[in-house]
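Student: Send me a single protein entry containing the residue sequence and its fold in token form, directly below this note:

Tutor:
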Amino acid sequence: MEKILIVDDNHDICLLLERFLSKQGYKTASVQRGEDGLALLRKETFELVICDFKLPDIDGLEMLRRIKVLNPATAVIIITGYSDVRIAVQSVKHGAYDYVTKPLYPDEILLTIKSALERRTKTIKQQTAEGPATARPAAAKPATGKAATTSDGKRFIFGKSRVADQLQKHIDLIAPTDMSVIITGETGTGKEFVANAIHLRSKRADKPFVAIDCGALSKDLAGSELFGHVKGAFTGAMSDKAGSFEYANGGTLFLDEIGNLSYDNQIKLLRVLQERKIRRIGSNQDIAVDVRIIAATNEDLRDAVRQGRFREDIYHRIDEFEIHLSPLRDRKTDIMIFADHFLELANRQLEKQIAGFDEGAREKLKDYYWHGNLRELQNVIKRSVLLTQGDMIEMDVLPREIVSPQYLTVEDAVPNGQISAEPLRAGAPANGQAGANLKSVSENAERAAILRVLEKTGYNKTKAAEVLNIDRKTLYNKLKAYDIHL
């Protein structure tokens, strides 16, 4: 009988879920605090945890990380009353199977639970089988590139191009060492998968692999996420909390988008890199840590160093070896290998048996620019599998921008010129008012131009930044400044 742990500070929800799931044949337990749930997980094995994102002592992302450290095979579903896409993305990225919002509907939560448990079972079988091919649907077309399996059972396909061969050689070369690595490349090129592949080939493979998205950490909370804090260190610090360095002790810490760390937190990180000790916020006691650092960025850190946005001493400490991931458009021979791989995944997730792609669809996939790289390709394939009624994916189920691509110019999106890293200068003040209103006029014009470009690019931020002739970080800063939520 599969065991499910419910963690929610609402006693009524715990009681209702326990009763409902017990009737469905599951063994259940419930707690109202995160620490109580973790204590129970240390004593017993649960196949699934249903966890509220807002707990009185620990938030959902922290619970996810700690659950995965205790037992990576445990499936996790996050529930919350706050319908926030950013939380959903972060939850799934940190290892949650799915994310559902309150109020909970019996049929919906039961389907999600069954799917999560089925995925968990398939992952375990795949890890213990002699090869990943045993988990493929019979009708799926096998990917022909070289593959690696990550710690959570996901497969990373290397491809067969010259670039792919070089990448695999670099991973095989650097993995057995303890050298720090920087992985560079555009968004969606698979930086976290490469970091995981390095970890799995290292001497630390049996220790934790902890991934942190530095771009998602606020300036105020980044220190707590990385180094932990003690109870009472700041408002809201209700209990002691270990940071990511402690969770990754003995293993590998992956710092994604490291260039987004604030200057203050860069200084704290430098101390850890130098002394191999961390100090929780509010504590005066050092804790020794043995962690290998793998960092990733989609910006030029050398340029960030020159501009004074990133400390040069940190850059040289983490840049012991660099791996650059080429964009998918520069790896034409690998596109269909990845497409076949994603077809396998989509068949499994959607319980379909699509055999492959017809010639027209294959040509369109190979010719497309792929601004979002592997991530965009995976989304396109999953959508196409969902829409396909026959045995083969045809052109008519591919997105319009792939079948009939229309390449934008700056003039198309911003008729009066380009957006630079500086605010646009308006030609004349609104309503004849000068001086004080000029700033608001230029900001309104810039905001309107950004929204226009985003709409024309299908809200693809990478493509929008290219059209606007600014880097992605500048675009993200402007989206935040103008309160544009995507």
Summary: Confidence is low (pLDDT under 50) at residues 130-143, 417-437. The longest strand covers residues 75-80. The radius of gyration is 24 Å.
